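G., before I forget:
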Amino acid sequence: MNEIVTVFDIESTGLDPLTDHITEIAAIRAEVGPGGYIREIGRFQTYVALPPGVEIPPKITELTGIKTEDLRGAPDAYCAVNAVLAFAGWSRRVAHNYPFDISFLFGVRGIGEDEEDFACTRAMSRLVDPDENASLAPTCERYGIALNGHHRAMNDVEATLQLYAILREKAEVSGITYRNVVVDSAERPLTYTPPGAIVRTLERKQTKEVA
Amino acid sequence: MNEIVTVFDIESTGLDPLTDHITEIAAIRAEVGPGGYIREIGRFQTYVALPPGVEIPPKITELTGIKTEDLRGAPDAYCAVNAVLAFAGWSRRVAHNYPFDISFLFGVRGIGEDEEDFACTRAMSRLVDPDENASLAPTCERYGIALNGHHRAMNDVEATLQLYAILREKAEVSGITYRNVVVDSAERPLTYTPPGAIVRTLERKQTKEVA
């Protein structure tokens, strides 16, 4: 069955949605189907303005290539988040490490949402390949997906979309439930649980022993 | 002085905002400055879903290359318009034949807005080069701007942004007022006047005699 998804990614000044800020948002809305079928419907990328006086830490600029001056004249976070959520609309939201990205989006809006329809490709990677590294770069490498310019939002979105098309099929073939599933582990504890999420606890070692 | 603009373009099923529908929206937000300086901040392009039962007329598909099936799974017009207006935010809105594009955007929202800050590159072309053809393709050609794939929204936006950077400077050098100015003429009557617009009536022949 084909489905409509909006894959998105944010870049930020740091990891904490309560004290850090979004610097870039990208999203692709697409129809996804069997055999890696992807039909793009639209895409959105924007820098996001920081609150007055806030700057991007040098180590983050080193990681992402995004400089404070790049954000001059950009939409503020509230506008950018509303734009991307309006763009996504009723489609299924997909992100790699979805709880992280959505915590920033919902943080900006000051509210969560009662009902969600999402998929986290990081959780899918853990569920499908429990003994492998579930980060975006190594997961893409395993599946032969090019990831150039990692940590620029649109590059990550393009890779995540391809990854989703592959992992979705693998999960369905194996009867693995992944809709609205997030993964918690001691190694990488969940810092935010999206409303309506199904939390699976997986420990790499333990999983290895069981498998 | 540099300024922040959001250049946008829509494609539609026809010319009448009351009976026709948006099929595609594209926008680029950018900082524009003297000497054709352009720094892109973000860009947004999406197909837009049609109401049930509506199809794109064959002659429009011929013009734009956009087919009814391309719009499957796209955001509806209300969501797409809200997304692009949130993205544009406080920036100056720019379009080639702005009254046409904004009539569709405001038509979808069911409201206009009290205060606008916009520029119409078609009006600017008429004001700067009163004897020339002010349509997008010939105006771009005069200024050496590439316009590939005219009538796909993002292509038109890219060309319009470059055109704006040039015409703005020419208008300012010549002391021509263009902010919020729209042009009305017998040859091409205004069908929609954006709230707050300054209407200039220009007839090509008459202008020629005067000049």
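The first helix of chain B runs from residue 58 to 64. Residues 206-211 of chain B have pLDDT under 50 and may be disordered.

More on Monday.
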